[in-house]
């Protein structure tokens, strides 16, 4: 009886610690009953030479415990050889039972995201975890840099780029399991902390009121490339080139804008849609006809052992729930 109770207490510890502690106490209390029963058996007519153990002696045996740290507090276990054997097998089975829980925790996924996705990703992470219980570790950066990291073996499960060119490069190079699928299209804006005539930005930027203009590095940041295209389309790129301050990512561009380091900058509409941003900003949406559509692509990254959580997240990003969140942050979805 005490073996069963002790085993139940230890094995159920990860699920119900309080119940486990109660069961273990029952197992330990049962030791007294077992020893007491053994004492009665020994005190028989055939064995008069053996004295029946006193109650105090039984209690001394019962109290001969050693403690192990499990969970929230020490648990008393009988220190006899038999008790240690019971503990050993109980712990083995406890580890077997705990395995599904540790496996579930191991399903946490690592996702590489374009820098423009930082604001919206927080909402997506929260919603995805509520639906699946899986945590998403998001690492942001310029899409070009993230692509290089993946090619060099960075352990990402999913890649959400700010364009389709970089994920397509990964697919063609054998690093992705699928061709990139478009999950959203970005919106380019010109933004400032100053109340400027942003509606007439092609005339504003070459003027003396603007000394510095921030854009992402066109070579690695798709929003920077879109900004360069818009400036070129407006016929002022060469005129303002000396004023341009390149950010390695949209995150850096946003910092330049919100701290007033530059008078104006080209960034994503998600910046002004982010409730976490407390800076007063003025902006104007850039005519989408002046730059190539910012179609943002996603791919699953090949791994030696596929993570089921990654596939769930991939499908989630294309779900109506995720699309609604993207729309709230100024993105276009199909």
Protein model, in words:
The protein is α/β, with parallel strands linked by helices and 334 residues long. The protein contains 14 helices and 12 strands. It has helices spanning 2-11, 17-42, 55-62, 81-105, 118-132, 143-151, 165-172, 201-204, 222-233, 237-240, 250-258, 270-273, 308-317, 320-328; strands spanning 65-70, 73-78, 109-114, 136-141, 158-160, 181-186, 188-192, 213-216, 244-247, 264-268, 282-285, 294-300. The strands form 3 sheets. It has a 5-stranded mixed β-sheet with strand order 4-3-5-12-6, with helices on both faces. A 5-stranded mixed β-sheet has the order 9-8-10-7-11, with helices on both faces. It has a two-stranded antiparallel ribbon with strand order 1-2. The model is unreliable at 1-53, 57-79 and 98-106 (pLDDT under 50).
Strand content: 15-25%
Structural class: alpha/beta
Largest beta-sheet characterization: 5 strands, mixed
Number of helices: 14
Name the helix and strand elements from N-terminus to C-terminus, one letter apiece: HHHEEHEHEHEHEEHEHHEHEHEEHH
How are strands sequenced across the largest beta sheet? 4-3-5-12-6
Residue share in helix: 40-55%
Total strand count, please?
Answer: 12
C-alpha-based Rg, rounded:
32 Å
Sequence stretches where pLDDT stays below 50 over 5 or more residues: 1-53, 57-79, 98-106
Query: What is the CA–CA distance across the termini?
Result: 63 Å
Whole-number mean pLDDT = 80
What form results from the Cα inertia axes?
Answer: globular
